[in-house]
Design a protein that fits this description.
Layout: H1 5-9, H2 18-35, H3 41-50, H4 57-67, E1 106-115, E2 118-127, E3 133-139, H5 144-161
Antiparallel strand pairs: 1-2, 2-3
Length: 162
Amino acid sequence: MGIKRSTLYYKPKKNINKKQKELRIRKKIEDISREHPYYGYRRITAQLRRDKVIVNHKKVSKMMQEMGIQGRIKHKYVTTTDSKHNNKIYSNLIKDKELTCINQVWCADITYIRILNGFVYLAAIIDIYSRKIVGYAIGKTLSPKLAITASAFYSTSADNKI
């Protein structure tokens, strides 16, 4: 017959040019990005591979940059300050005073510390002149007892020093 054997086994490739393939990938990237706005290029690449689209993560990153798509960052932020309250706001009583030695003015603050399974609260009493911590207490709840314990810390440690 005069034809090669490989001709019989040849399967023609689907005639999809590169631009059409790239447009399909871009469309899928847009869909995934809209569905999951916090996904970056790595997660989008993983999702494309789960959807049986073979693509390199570098290509996905480049396409996302060209399309102006960027994964939003999830922030785990807890608001602890309520500035819009109806309580009385006191004026600054030491604004015009000059501090000359320790134990003239103390300042108290309460903050939270993130731990593995939640938060703990830290109440601290600070000497304004020396900026040293005079007393502190750590607790699981934000209660008045926490501040009282922090202030009691100074009186017990001062008694021990004398």
